[in-house]
């Protein structure tokens, strides 16, 4: 073994993972800096007038208190001014070690809120101002050092559009104009590389919040005011809708925005538009540290890596399976999905966000969906983001969906325990379940608007129970505790009725009428012919009815129904159904 000691760089290269993670912060979106060779710069031709009467140290000290916008304006006065500014120790440290931070501040025009001294002090501070961990980033809307986790999670680091700040904190424009604000640089932001084409004017969240509290006297008074305003806006909107309807107009009115845009945290590009990476300058040792090799604080790379692995854990692509779809090219489309084989979620996608073909093919839908928000929710709404136009979850919620009101049978099977087989209709499948020896048929409400239909049919099966009129009812199907459908026996070796089956179909219908029930939809596909007998199905239009005239009318109409060649009631999938 060699006793030769490794030098610092060799040691670091062996002990720290050499990862260079692009977070797509503001500095990743600045034009590449190309230094101009300063060696041939001419000596100053003019002086600074009265200012030159001051000793240089005093002048440097005074200038270091200037805000960066004014300081940069000053250094452009003449070559002497530039020479003096460049001699300020704080400014020199900034241009040497944090040039991108300075460039970024000037690019988003926040220089007027940040002094040269403040930026220097932040360069010489290692810890996150929120949590005290080592922080490798600077939030340059107000110049705060912040770690990755805080910048992506803490609400203070989410710059707001002025309109959003007004909606959230009830700020009039004369106050909004005074808040620290920035103009974003178009580019790609956040680890998710969200493209933002426009220059957005964004204000500092924390400043807006405090102005709101000052204006209304307290946080609760502010919140009350804001909720009153949005309730009023909503009321005005509803009134206008009613008026438009009364006039017979079909004009689509824009619903006022009353809730927050969904914050995608580490995937929210707004959170990265005022963020630059910055090293730590140790004032006493004058050493520069990007976070490597310190004992008591986590290293920069470790933190970066933790941030990334945490994000990966957070956003690990879940196993998403498209169960059912009801897609419409001109209106919102609805999807029922299964996440990680254990939770069923309902997603509504706004019209025009995706192509219908892309949405209805399971693997394709899964690949184009935005990351599923974490937390407990069962219904989500996807639309285009107002700032960058990309699809995003505008809202998610945990909703208590309606269920079938009258679960009369003792047997109840969880939907997730069923193994689905062939699809017979959009909401009818063959399936297997350990509790049953043979294939069963499952009929259920794919979406909550199908519940009333299933509710009616479930009751009808109770009325005919034990009379051999329909397939045997085997039990209810539940999802997350609510009953959404039922299972019945599979009638094998059967076919739909033809005009030749009139007498056996009449016999089956008579048995139903004898119970005082009108079927409601006696088309030929609702009679299954098996073993010389007709079995009735599809009771969702059935009603209890003792009016002999009405029942007789249905009976007499049967012959015509069996001769109907229109295909009505057949296994036709008119909707865009996906399995
Ligand atoms: Zn922090």
TrEMBL record:
Pfam families for the chain: Kdo
Residue ranges occupied by any F-box domain in the UniProt entry: 48-94
CDD domains (UniProt xref): F-box_SF
Extent of the signal sequence: none
Cited Gene3D superfamilies: Transferase(Phosphotransferase) domain 1
PROSITE patterns reported for this sequence: FBOX
Name of the protein this chain belongs to: F-box domain-containing protein
Organism of derivation: Periconia macrospinosa
Lineage: Eukaryota, Fungi, Dikarya, Ascomycota, Pezizomycotina
């Amino acid at each position: 073994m060699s006793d030769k000691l490794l030098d610092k760089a060799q040691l670091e290269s062996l002990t720290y993972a050499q990862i260079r993670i692009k977070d797509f912060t503001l500095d990743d979106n600045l034009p590449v800096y190309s230094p101009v060779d300063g060696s041939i710069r001419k000596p100053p031709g003019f002086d600074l007038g009265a200012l030159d009467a001051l000793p240089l140290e005093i002048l440097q000290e005074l200038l270091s208190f200037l805000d960066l916008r004014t300081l940069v304006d000053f250094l452009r006065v003449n070559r002497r001014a530039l020479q003096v500014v460049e001699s300020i120790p704080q400014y020199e440290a900034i241009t040497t070690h944090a040039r991108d931070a300075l460039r970024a501040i000037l690019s988003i025009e926040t220089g007027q809120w940040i002094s040269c001294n403040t930026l220097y002090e932040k360069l010489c501070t290692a810890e996150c101002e929120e949590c005290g961990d080592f922080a490798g980033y600077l939030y340059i809307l107000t110049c705060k050092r912040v770690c990755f986790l805080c910048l992506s999670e803490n609400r203070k680091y989410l710059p707001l559009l002025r309109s959003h700040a007004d909606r959230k904190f009830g700020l009039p424009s004369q106050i909004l104009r005074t808040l620290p604000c920035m103009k974003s640089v178009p580019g790609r932001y956040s680890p998710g590389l969200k493209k933002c084409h426009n220059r957005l004017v964004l204000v500092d969240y924390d400043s807006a919040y405090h102005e709101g509290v000052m204006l209304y006297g307290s946080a609760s008074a502010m919140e009350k005011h804001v909720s009153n305003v949005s309730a009023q806006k909503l009321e005005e909107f509803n009134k206008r809708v009613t008026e438009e309807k009364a006039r017979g107009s079909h004009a689509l009115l824009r619903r006022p925005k009353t809730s927050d845009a969904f914050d995608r945290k580490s995937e929210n590009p707004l959170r990265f538009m005022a963020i630059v990476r910055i090293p730590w300058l140790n004032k006493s040792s004058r050493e520069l540290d990007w976070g490597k090799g310190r004992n008591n604080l986590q290293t920069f790379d470790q933190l970066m890596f933790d941030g990334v692995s945490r994000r990966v854990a957070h956003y690990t692509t879940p196993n998403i399976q498209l169960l059912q779809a009801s897609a419409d090219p001109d209106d919102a489309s609805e999807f029922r999905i299964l996440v990680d084989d254990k939770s069923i979620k309902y997603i509504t996608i706004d019209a025009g966000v995706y192509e219908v073909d892309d949405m209805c093919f399971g693997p394709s839908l899964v690949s184009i969906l935005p990351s599923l928000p974490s937390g407990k929710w069962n219904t989500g709404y996807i639309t285009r983001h107002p700032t960058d136009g990309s699809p995003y979850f505008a809202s998610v919620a945990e909703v208590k969906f309606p269920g079938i009101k009258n679960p009369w049978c003792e047997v109840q099977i969880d939907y997730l325990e069923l193994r689905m087989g062939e699809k017979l209709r959009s909401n009818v499948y063959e399936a297997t379940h350990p509790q049953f020896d043979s294939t069963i048929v499952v009929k259920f409400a794919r979406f909550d608007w199908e519940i009333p239909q299933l509710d009616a049919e479930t009751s009808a099966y109770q009325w005919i129970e034990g009379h051999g009129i329909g397939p045997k009812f085997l039990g209810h199907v539940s999802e997350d505790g609510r009953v959404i459908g039922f299972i019945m026996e599979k009638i094998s070796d059967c076919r739909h009725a033809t005009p030749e089956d009139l007498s056996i179909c009449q016999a089956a219908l008579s048995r139903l009428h004898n119970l005082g029930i009108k079927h409601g939809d006696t088309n030929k596909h609702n009679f299954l012919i098996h073993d010389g007998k007709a079995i009735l199905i599809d009771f969702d239009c059935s009603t209890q009815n003792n009016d002999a005239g009405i029942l007789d009318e249905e009976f007499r109409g049967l012959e015509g129904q069996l001769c109907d060649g229109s295909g009505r009631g057949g296994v036709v999938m008119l909707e865009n159904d996906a399995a």
